[in-house]
Design brief:
The structure is a homodimer.
Chain A lengths: L1 E9 L16 H13 L6 E2 L8 E11 L5 H12 L4 E9 L11 E10 L12 E3 L5 H8 L4 E4 L14 E12 L2 E8 L6 H13 L6 H9 L14 E7 L5
Parallel strand pairs in A: 3-10, 5-6
Antiparallel strand pairs in A: 1-3, 1-4, 2-3, 5-9, 5-10, 7-8, 8-9
Catalytic activity (chains A, B): uridine(38/39/40) in tRNA = pseudouridine(38/39/40) in tRNA
Protein name (chains A, B): tRNA pseudouridine synthase A
Function (chains A, B): Formation of pseudouridine at positions 38, 39 and 40 in the anticodon stem and loop of transfer RNAs.
């Protein structure tokens, strides 16, 4: 048995999310099926994060155990061949010790959320960004975001379906920057609650539109109440961009 | 009658090209139909460039004449409403003098060609870039490209269907740069021949793979013969990025 770490890129549009679902296609299902076709083995994929339907990944980190011997590059190539035509690509593959775990060994996760802020509808970025027609003040959004950085009870910014035992998390970074008519929000933490990034982004968008005052974000956080949430941003603007491990270079 | 200049962004994937076609959907047809639904008038769209099936535009410049009075912002909004769900967006609209012509007044055109150079297939950029699995030497490509800059007879890099009277063009810029596993080729000229950018990029890709020596690009140019062409790059990596006019700010 060999444990392989995979780096995975996917377009989340056609999937019901990363995690295997009984009622529709998932990224996990696509990779497990590709591995089964290749090896005949029933493999289980573990990943650094779970993503919702429509959420994308540039570099999700995962692992699986395979009995049949493989050179990592050949495994990557063969999995990619079996994954076609699904929009899932294995962009990296490495052998890891048996106690390396894509989820439990992970010490940091980063997301990016992309907004296009303009009147005209999206064309090339349809399904790849959140389209907001009303002008957004990115500086106000960034200022408001700083109230969320640090160790807090994020109950307000957590899905009702979140399974985490503890709503207290440490948010290391929440930066909002404008690049032309694009607004990018970069978030980093050891781990996130379910819907946390989308909930934070949705609320910051209200600040950007002037619907909420900057100080209201801190008040919503202090309320520790999902009902105090401004807005949950749609999934199509969210990208899982990186997972970090102690053995990373 | 008022002449309106439009800035147009589109995803070329579902179209048979920008120009109206008898046998399938076109960007021109989509915009003319939207204008007809809005005004009841039979309008004709003129554009800075013609693009092939699958080629994209970030900021194509076009014009049309409309009898009914419109405030430019309202015209843009109404055209966008009528264009749904086609992946075509009017991102700018301005009134111009009657002698301003999107094609004939244009004094400069810029294209970008995007390559992803990696083993793994594309997911989020499928249909948005040319996927080349073999490693490319971007520095060699850039060096070879400089042989094409300047005033030359570009017969080698011209489609058999090109309708231009004169194959002599002045290429102002052809820069190749690597950004991670992406390679971007930026081309600028007063005007281009049909398939010129794709033909130049395809040939440079042969240099990047080491199939052609750097000096062979200059030889192919000097041959003034379509048969000397290395390769025509596929349309999905090509973006029309800008058109320039004497009255631009």
């Amino acid at each position: 048995m060999t444990r392989f770490a995979l780096t995975v890129e996917f377009d989340g549009t056609p999937f019901f999310g990363l995690q295997r679902q009984p009622h529709g296609p998932s990224v996990q299902g696509a990779i497990e099926n590709a591995a089964h076709k290749l090896t005949g083995e029933d493999v289980t994929l573990f990943s650094a994060g779970r993503t919702d339907s429509g959420v994308h990944a540039l570099a999700m980190r995962c692992h699986l155990d395979i009995e049949k011997p493989f050179e990592p590059f050949r495994l990557m190539e063969a999995l990619n061949a079996h994954l076609r035509p699904d929009p899932v690509a294995i962009t990296g593959c490495a052998v890891k010790p048996d106690d390396w775990h894509a989820r439990f060994s992970c010490i940091g996760r980063s997301y990016e959320y992309r907004i296009r802020n303009r009147r005209a509808p999206l064309t090339l970025e349809k399904g790849r960004a959140w389209h907001i027609a009303r002008p957004l003040d990115a500086d106000a959004m960034h200022e408001a975001a700083q109230a969320l950085v640090g160790r807090h009870d994020f109950t307000t910014f957590r899905s009702a379906h979140c399974q985490a035992k503890d709503p207290v998390k440490t948010l290391d970074r929440l930066d909002v920057s404008r690049e032309g008519d694009a607004i990018v929000i970069r978030a980093a933490a050891r781990s996130f609650l379910h819907h946390q990034v989308r909930s934070m982004v949705g609320t910051l968008a209200l600040v950007g539109q002037g619907t909420w005052a900057i100080g209201q974000v801190a008040e919503a956080l202090a309320a520790k109440d999902r009902a105090a949430l401004g807005l949950n941003a749609p999934p199509e603007g969210l990208y899982f961009v990186a997972a970090h491990y102690p053995d990373d270079n």
